[in-house]
């Protein structure tokens, strides 16, 4: 008979018999019915249950063992078995009795407290809506038929404390695909698993499984040495490397895969994974915490995704095999010592989102030879590049205003540096022990250089040759201007980039003082407008290797009388020498036939009308370095540079 009808009948009978008040609580056997539709009663010597009909939640609480039942019809909640959607076994209860939740066909969520040590026979028999369940850490045995007929069960978490799984425990679990086991493969193989459990033994077993956050799990494949982090949200924070759940096998981790959905790599997460060589970080990760990869000494490369906004202090400290790092534009902060002692690191490209290079960031990166600092950076903090002993040159972007204490201290191979006129202070010891520093290219004037506040113990900087009106043009080209001789020297590699107008070049402010231009070997093309309006320019030498002189390159260079052009030139753009009204001589390092094959654009009559001096294989050009038929100051400058190996 339906329990609700029994209770209703009792209440009607009480009213008919003249009771003065309707009771709020009625009791039938061990069943108590509350007026708010909550049922409760006992289910063990010291354990009780309550069922909330509103939410479909059955809660087991108290202490000690639940009672074991001989069939599903013997449980005190049998009459509403099909209405149970959620089962919660609270702390204090030590066992789940036989048939406790059998045939709860609507049951989809089960929470079992860590106090439970055993799960009885047929405890979850035929719970056809249950898709996953976690067995607590101290359970030692799972009874016969405990999950038999759970046809929707897709995954289960089994702790290493389990020693026995009885007959038919997972029989007819036709959807079971994944078993997450907290122990090792060897421990799994030692579990006594009785027959009729093929769905369990045929599933994929993830060994060394556990939680590393509220919604994050990990598993470790001993065969491949792969640690996989999956789930959603933040990983759990750890105060030291020994607190991470994979600490016992930390030195066996060779590969880390972080699945999409994880949002942070927390501090100490992979500290001391000395065998780690490969890491996969998804675009969902936004932060890499302090000490995250500290002393991962075998890690050779790391791909930081564009989703990451911060890299914590010591994050990659002493990753001694790391060779190259590109920090994406999404990163706005890098903690101190982040890449300290990465002794194999050769190349660093920094994020456009950074406003400073943090203290000790690359301290002791003894193999570092190439650094790209973005224009967003305003300060280079103390010790940032100290003891980068292989660094030969560096370009400080024109956004930087301060170079702090010991920033480049003991960069013993540093021979040249480009410093912009935006720099107002260079602190104590910034270039201390930079014993090879010979050339400083400064974009401002001598007067501006003298106004910079330069701290003590920077004699390696101040004793170097200061090339004022010097700096970087484009990505790969440098320039320097000698005010004494009026000579502009262009060095570097690749193309001299186009200028949208003559005012966009860094030598615009003194372009009318340029008398001679020397382009060094390594340059491959001369961009549009770059030397337009250099009205005092009288001589220019273009090295072999340059293939293109682009549109309006030398337009309105009214004093240009001669130019040396190499045989490597294949095209001269529209108006490249327009309004070069003084041009009389062109010294071409090739034959007349080769000259005629050059593609010369229109509005270059000043060039084509000049006298073309073709190369004479029998002439002596020992001192006529630019082959222009005369020996003058240009030849002397070029000869000096040749002897010094600069061209």
What can you tell me about this protein's structure?
The longest helix has 14 residues, at 3-16. This protein is elongated. With 647 residues, the protein is mainly beta. It contains 8 helices and 52 strands. Helices cover 8% and strands 28% of the residues. The strands form 10 sheets. An 8-stranded mixed β-sheet has the order 40-41-42-44-46-48-50-52, with no helix packed on it. Strands 1-2-3-4-5-7-9 form a 7-stranded mixed β-sheet, with helices on one face. Strands 6-8-10-12-14-16 form a 6-stranded parallel β-sheet, with no helix packed on it. It folds into 3 domains: 25-206, Leucine-rich repeat, LRR (right-handed beta-alpha superhelix) (Alpha-Beta Horseshoe), CATH 3.80.10.10; 323-468, Leucine-rich repeat, LRR (right-handed beta-alpha superhelix) (Alpha-Beta Horseshoe); 473-643, Leucine-rich repeat, LRR (right-handed beta-alpha superhelix), CATH 3.80.10.10. Mean pLDDT is 90; it is low at 1-29.
């Amino acid at each position: 008979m339906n329990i609700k009808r029994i209770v209703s009948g009792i209440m009607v009978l009480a009213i008919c018999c003249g009771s003065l008040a309707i009771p709020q609580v009625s009791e039938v056997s061990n069943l108590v019915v509350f007026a708010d539709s909550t049922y409760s009663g006992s289910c063990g010597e010291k354990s009780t249950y309550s069922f909330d009909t509103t939410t479909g939640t059955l809660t087991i609480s108290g202490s000690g063992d639940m009672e074991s039942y001989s069939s599903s019809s013997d449980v005190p909640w049998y009459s509403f078995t099909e209405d149970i959607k959620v089962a919660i076994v609270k702390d204090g209860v030590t066992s789940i009795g036989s048939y406790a939740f059998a045939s709860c066909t609507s049951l989809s969520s089960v929470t079992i407290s860590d106090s439970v040590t055993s799960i009885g026979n047929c405890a979850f028999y035929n719970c056809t809506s249950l898709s996953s369940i976690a067995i607590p850490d101290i359970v030692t045995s799972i009874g016969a038929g405990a999950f038999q007929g759970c046809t929707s069960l897709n995954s289960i978490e089994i702790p290493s404390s389990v020693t026995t799984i009885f007959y038919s425990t997972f029989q007819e679990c036709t959807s079971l695909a994944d078993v997450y086991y907290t122990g090792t493969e060897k421990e799994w193989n030692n579990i006594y698993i009785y027959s009729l459990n093929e769905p369990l033994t045929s599933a994929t077993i993830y060994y060394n499984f556990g939680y590393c956050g509220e919604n994050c799990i990990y598993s470790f494949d001993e065969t491949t040495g792969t640690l996989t982090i999956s789930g959603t949200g933040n990983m759990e924070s750890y105060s030291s490397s020994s607190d991470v759940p994979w600490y016992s096998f930390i030195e066996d981790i060779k590969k880390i895969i972080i699945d999409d959905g994880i949002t942070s790599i927390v501090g100490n997460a992979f500290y001391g994974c000395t065998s780690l060589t490969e890491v996969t970080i998804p675009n969902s990760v936004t932060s890499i915490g302090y000490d995250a990869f500290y002393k991962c000494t075998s890690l050779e490369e790391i791909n930081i995704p564009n989703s990451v906004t911060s890299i914590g202090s010591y994050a990659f400290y002493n990753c001694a095999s790391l060779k190259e790092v590109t920090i994406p534009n999404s990163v706005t902060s890098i903690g101190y010592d982040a890449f300290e002692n990465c002794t194999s690191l050769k190349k660093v490209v920094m994020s456009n989102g950074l406003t400073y290079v943090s203290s000790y960031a690359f301290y002791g990166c003894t193999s570092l030879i190439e650094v790209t600092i973005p224009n967003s950076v305003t300060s280079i903090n103390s010790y940032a590049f100290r003891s980068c002993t292989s660094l030969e040159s560096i370009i400080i972007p024109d956004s930087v205003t301060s170079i702090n204490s010991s920033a480049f201290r003991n960069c013993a191979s540093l021979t040249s540096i480009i410093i912009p006129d935006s720099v107002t202070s260079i602190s104590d010891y910034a270039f201390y022990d930079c014993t090879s520093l010979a050339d400083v290219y400064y974009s401002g004037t001598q007067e501006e250089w003298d106004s910079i506040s330069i701290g003590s113990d920077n004699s390696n900087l101040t004793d170097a040759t200061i090339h004022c009106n010097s700096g970087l043009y484009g990505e790969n080209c440098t320039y320097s201007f000698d005010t004494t001789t009026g000579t502009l020297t262009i060095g570097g590699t690749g193309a001299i980039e186009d200028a949208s107008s003559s005012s966009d070049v860094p030598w615009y402010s003194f372009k009318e003082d340029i008398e001679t231009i020397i382009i060094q070997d390594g340059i491959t093309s001369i961009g549009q407008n770059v030397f337009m309006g250099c009205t005092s320019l009288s001589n220019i030498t273009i090295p072999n290797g340059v293939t293109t002189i682009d549109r309006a390159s030398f337009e309105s260079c009214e004093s240009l009388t001669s130019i040396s052009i190499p045989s490597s030139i294949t095209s001269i753009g529209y108006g490249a020498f327009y309004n070069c009204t003084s041009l009389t001589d062109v010294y071409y390092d090739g034959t007349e036939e080769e000259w005629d094959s050059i593609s010369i654009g229109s509005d270059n009559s000043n060039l084509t009308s000049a006298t073309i001096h073709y190369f004479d294989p029998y002439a002596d050009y020992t001192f006529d370095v630019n082959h222009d038929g005369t020996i003058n100051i240009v030849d002397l400058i070029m000869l000096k540079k040749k002897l010094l190996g600069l061209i």
